[in-house]
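Example for reference:
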Amino acid sequence: MISFFLYSWTMTLLLFALSFYITWVTFATIYYFISWIHGDLLPDNLPGGEKQRGGEWKPCILEMLDFASAFLFSLETQHTIGYGSRQTTNECPEAIIVMSFQSVIGCLIQAFMVGLVFAKLSRPKHRYFFNSQLYKSPSQNLTNIVSFFLGPILWYLVKMVLCANETNRCA
């Protein structure tokens, strides 16, 4: 499994932006579909249409004109920017349910992305792995069991005990 921590910063920021745009467009499509099913997008039922001016029609979402206004409503819902004149009414409970679901999904995406960026900023720069064989460096008389590795090794605690029976010429 590829870890999100191994992605470059460019890919991480692209994932960050795409996760928001995908949810905005998805929920905008759902809101547009709800308004279309309810009949809010018919010319007489649109804001400024005869039925709305006469008070005969109550739409699911006020000021829903087209897909662009559905997209703005989706963005405003997910980030709690504020609706201005665009808001749900009690006419369509399905729009209210979708709106509350989008708010929860938006909070989860933001928490995931903040956690990902924070973990990426706080992770160590170098990764290590252990060789299958122990060998000595002839020039420095050092034992090498660790090599550099850029990979998904996280939080290893190693304790090493070396036992040797060595005899020199003087003994």
Summary: Residues 4-122 form a domain with the Helix Hairpins fold (CATH 1.10.287.70). Residues 165 and 171 are 13 Å apart (CA to CA). The longest helix spans residues 9-38.
